[in-house]
Amino acid sequence: MLARMEKNRRIVLARRPVGAPVASDMRLEEVALPAIGDGQLLLKTLFLSLDPYMRGRMSEDRSYSPPIALGDPIVGRTISRVAESRNRDYAVGDVVMANSGWQTHFVSDGTALRKLDMQHPSLALGVLGSAGFAAYIGLLEIGKPKPGETVAVAAATGGVGATVVQLARLRGAHTIAIAGGADKVAYARDVLRADVALDHRAPDFAAQLKAAAPNGIDVYFENVGGDVLHAVVPLLNDRARIPICGVIAWYNLTEAPAGPDFSPSLVRTILRRRALMEGFVVSDWLHKQEQFFADMTKWIDDGAIVYREHVVDGFENAPAAFIGLLDGKNFGKVVVKVAD
Amino acid sequence: MLARMEKNRRIVLARRPVGAPVASDMRLEEVALPAIGDGQLLLKTLFLSLDPYMRGRMSEDRSYSPPIALGDPIVGRTISRVAESRNRDYAVGDVVMANSGWQTHFVSDGTALRKLDMQHPSLALGVLGSAGFAAYIGLLEIGKPKPGETVAVAAATGGVGATVVQLARLRGAHTIAIAGGADKVAYARDVLRADVALDHRAPDFAAQLKAAAPNGIDVYFENVGGDVLHAVVPLLNDRARIPICGVIAWYNLTEAPAGPDFSPSLVRTILRRRALMEGFVVSDWLHKQEQFFADMTKWIDDGAIVYREHVVDGFENAPAAFIGLLDGKNFGKVVVKVAD
């Protein structure tokens, strides 16, 4: 049993962000550790996943999940270790995937946990977790690239995009990785082995993209929105597919941007090209999760898919890391190391 | 054999329209009737279909079909009678559906024709033709409304929309018809029997739509674009489906409209609601055509589906009728009566 002197440290939503979140929208608190009841466990967080979708949950907008209440811990997937157990299914020391949120401890009744048995448990937050699963579902179930088709991937070195690039290449597609900055572009080309890697910050990015897609674009994996989408739309082929996983460039918008209005061009292109645009969240695809886990484990073991983690050390650094993530400052899947 | 004194009258594309087409973009010509060769037929146009998609074909933009060449007759589906035949499959007097375009005569080799045997052959251009087929495919194959779901239909008294409204009602959906003007709204409510019919020109249209859809919108059949789409998007439910059949409000755009930019709101909603937006053209769905024809004939015979034609008398009036169609001046499916 933990010494009851230990406190639960948690980061709560202090204020709903207006536009880009700032540090004072979040607040670090210490509260007493609760005692656990029959059937319950006390989880101690080892790693916390930081993901762009959390920005949406901080707002009051209608979304696929309810907003976080003010004063509540920010939501999030964690890798946790069982510190105390009054549940026969879990023993002290077990490592599980949980949804503890942004806090160092969490009392669980044992539901919605998944035991992990791997050397690098933080992978379960990235390439083997929801980021990898989003890449797998979005690309393979919605994008469905065929060999020889052209796939463009935005945020191509991020937690989701890096896996999309590699899956597209494994499927035999001509793969165009789009990232921001020379180091990410080099990584996408040399490590992820995209056929072409482009920097969306280049002044002539749209022309570069056109030159990189001489046969047009069949699948655009949307992670970003904004100018990258604008450059992709004119290149879409007949029956193009656009799985929408995120629109990080637009999460911090407080109102519709000034014009021109791009929506007529977007919708007319979807019509003319008989294209498909579909939003998805992985929680709708849990029936594919075991297959994903089996496929991805094999690809990682084979070396067909590589991964990169951006590990932030220390729970108290989560807010700054999250703000940086929304600004593209991460390089790879962001996880916060909370405890050893 | 026709007297060779008869001429072929045709309306050709004189100039590519900039924005809304004007009369001088089209030109009426008379040319000699060609002689027919072995295996050919001379078709005499009885009815010409006018449809919004023709606007797209007048531009040089990349679309699902090549643009009409300057000086060529404008494309279009026709109901025609065989006036001369050197083809064993067709006899003089047969009535066929053809693609003669905007002209009084056409020489065919007998391919891509469909013999018609019905009392009102012009129906084959409307409720039993591509307009009805577009309604059937877009609503039933892409929209897929379930009983009790809410379906909103724009341009609800037009050639496509009127059938969509009735099919949605037949499927047991709460059906919201959107049209422009009191007479069309009354028709949608009283004849098409929509559950609610709204005038998109009302200053408080968005609020009326919200009140008419207390459970949100599950299927939006897009025929229009513009302000109707803007009002629909905030009401979309989880897993909403948006078949895109046309965007008549936007066909005449010469450049992106002034802001604000609606595209972030549109794409974010597709993401949050895990919605699907899909463009379609009926030529991709020909494998469903016989089923459509059987279903629709039965529904018309039963009185379950009614239809309204807007018959324009006289071939020379086609340009003005087409300009009016793009401006919403028609009421029902527009056909031009070319000959008795």
Automatic annotation (TrEMBL), chains A, B:
GO terms for molecular function: oxidoreductase activity, acting on the CH-CH group of donors, NAD or NADP as acceptor. CDD domains: PGDH. The keyword Oxidoreductase applies. Residues 23-336 form the Enoyl reductase (ER) domain. The keyword Membrane does not apply. Pfam families: ADH_N_2, ADH_zinc_N. This is NADP-dependent oxidoreductase.
